[in-house]
Amino acid sequence: MVSYIHPCCNIYSKIGPVCESYGRTVLVIGGEKALAAAYQKIAAAVAKTKLTIIGKELFGADCTYDNVERLRALPVYQQADMVFGVGGGKALDTVKCLCITDDKPVFTFPTIASNCSACTSVSIMYNPDGTFLKPHFFIRPAMHAFIDTEIIAKAPSCYMWAGIGDTYAKYYESTISSRDERLEHFTSIGVAVSRMCRDPLLSYGPKAFADHQKGLCTYDVEQVILSIVVTTGIASIFLTKDCTPDYNSGLAHAIFYALTNYPVIEKNHLHGEVVGFGVLIALIVDGQMDEFEKVYELNKAIHLPVCLNDIEITEEEWEETMNRIPDMSDVAHYPYKVTRDMLVKAMNELDMRNKE
Q1: Which domain holds residue 286?
Q2: Which stretches make up the Alcohol dehydrogenase iron-type/glycerol dehydrogenase GldA domain (predicted)?
Q3: Which of 120, 135, 153 is the last residue of a domain?
Q4: Rounded to whole angstroms, how far apart are CA atoms 18 and 9?
Q5: In this structure, what DSSP letter does residue 214 have?
Q6: Which of 168, 262, 285, 317 has the most CB atoms around its CB within 10 Å?
Q7: pLDDT attached to residue 130
Q8: What gap in Å lies between CA 115 and CA 104, rounded to an integer?
Q9: DSSP-assigned letter for residue 179
Q10: pLDDT tens for each residue of 232-289
């Protein structure tokens, strides 16, 4: 399990006590914008330790095996005792795939709150053309996550916005996927933890998003960051069974992946944004109308999508998409067979709600 220290604006002061036992030389790998936001603060903190930064590298455009091999071939990587991964999901997943595979200590420094990659034991891999390839699972996550909430609060607020949609999905998808099953102890822990992927967002989400848009690092912002980055990561680790995310996914993610057939989704919309829309459909299909109302009101409050028009999908495209969703792997481990008729009825109910 990833070790964890309470997030704050001076968390990098803990780099020495946490990392010095793993060696002395550090390679920093990250995204261009992430390094611009965090590198100087990391370097200043490292200067007060026994560690030495011996290199700084860009991870690449996507989390691909080609990028992993390119970084692995660098002499500076071979010389480094440990790697600091800095950035968002693709940057952190790249350094995890690189280092955990080689059993080289890796530490994560998330700079946005759109996902839980800083704390998970999986990397989402892409093809060289930028399309989704597969999840790559590991036996452990990164050694430690350093979460500087001040840096995250100054990042573009659209990332937290999308992260909220992806995070509450963890609760609904895991509880539906695991329903009526006799679960392993660790899976039961994951399902129980997933509730904290929902509750803080309902309580703090609207104010946190408003504060984040102003660049403020408030209590509400920190609670939402924790839910997105830490709680979802912990739940994900416990919900992963035999390297198959049986309880990590569900109908909301099936809807997202089916809609990626249309270039507008990857071009104009974020993963969690579309998943947040998918949760609305999933809750109607599952008959959880009280929960649907909670999520619908949250989405309306922070302008996450509540209709097809919000994600630039036409009625014709949705008609075609509904034919593919029932056969997707994300709903293969569901307590019932998802059908096209269910999806048609759910969309009709959502349309009616939007007209009220």
Answers
A1: 161-354
A2: 13-131
A3: 153
A4: 17
A5: T
A6: 168
A7: 75
A8: 23
A9: T
A10: 999 999 998 666 557 889 999 999 999 988 999 989 999 999 999 999 999 999 999 9
What are 134's two structure tokens?
Answer: 């597969």
Residues 135 and 202 both lie in one domain: no
CA 322, 327, 332: angle at the middle one, nearest 5? 125
> What SS3 state is found at 107?
strand
Cα–Cα distance list, 161 to 170, 210, 302 (Å): 15, 10, 8
127, 64 Cβ separation under 8 angstroms: yes
Q: Which amino acid is at 98?
A: L
d(CA 152, CA 154): 5
DSSP state of 2: -
Q: Is there a single domain that holds both residue 75 and residue 24?
A: yes
pLDDT tens digits along 301-321: 999 999 999 999 999 999 999
For residue 193, pLDDT over 90 is answered with yes
Q: Where are the alpha helices (DSSP H) in 4-147?
A: 15-19, 32-46, 65-72, 75-79, 89-102
Of the candidates 80, 34, 54, the residue with the CA atom closest to the CA atom of residue 72: 80
Q: The CATH number of the domain where 105 resides is what?
A: 3.40.50.1970
Residue 244 and residue 348 share a domain: yes
The whole-angstrom separation of Cα 52 and Cα 26 is: 6
**DSSP, residue by residue, 118-173:** TT-SEEEEE-TTS-EEEEEE-SS--SEE---HHHHHTS-HHHHHHHHHHHHHHHHH
pLDDT for residue 8 is more than 60:
yes
User: In the numeric block, which tokens belong to residue 126?
Assistant: 């892409």
Residues 223 and 132 in one domain: no
